User: Fold this.
Amino acid sequence: MRRPELETAPLSTASPKPERHRSPSASFCGVEEAARILGDKWTLVVLRDLGRGPRHFSDLQISAAGISPRTLVSRLRGLEQQGLVTRVRFKGLPPRVLYSLTDKGRDALPVVEALRDYGNRWLCTGVSDSL
Assistant:
């Protein structure tokens, strides 16, 4: 029996450029975008801690033991730029800053909780972390 011949398109020699900004009408994946925003190391920990209420920088640094100040600043700035966190600066010496979740940030808390539940069930033994 003879196999049907397949039509092939010529291969392009130019490599395709990755899309940087996708419009809502383009092929779009919510999981991909959420992972891009929430997937950095420490981001979910910062969201978890802010889910307990507004926090000062030093409180966040203590509760996320092991995070460097530079990394914490980077994560907080990124979350602020994405609209998940608000930053309120108080005048005085020393200057104080209070971080809290926006509505968009609070909507991400079920993701944090689901990951915690999964980790406690499948990855950790006898460890409990309440939100």
About this structure: DSSP finds six helices and three strands in the chain. Residues 109-123 form the longest helix (15 residues).
